[in-house]
Amino acid sequence: MKKSLLYFVLLISAVSCTNYYTFLLQEDTPLYASNDSIISVTIITKDSEVFLSSKADKKNFRKLKWGNYYRWAIKPIYTSYIGYSKKSSYYLHGQDHLPAIARSRGQEPPYR
């Protein structure tokens, strides 16, 4: 009994999980309170970093996280956003910040 309950809980949690990925919006995107709403709550401006759900519902709404907002957007136009590197946490927005950090500490910047 316990084993079947465990399998059931694992199945339900796996089905209901939604992954969120970081994207950059390419145009202004209105946010809606629900996936059947027609009145927008706010508008996210172009070039904003957002977290977008991996799943779309039947009406092509996607769950979106932006700041403190967890709302719905209709077919948002986005591009992938790469603002970090796995090699260094100092690599951000296409720039290596290690030399600047080293200089601020009075050290020679590392050469790679």
TrEMBL record:
Keywords: Signal. Residues 1-18 form the signal peptide. The keyword Signal applies. This is Lipoprotein.
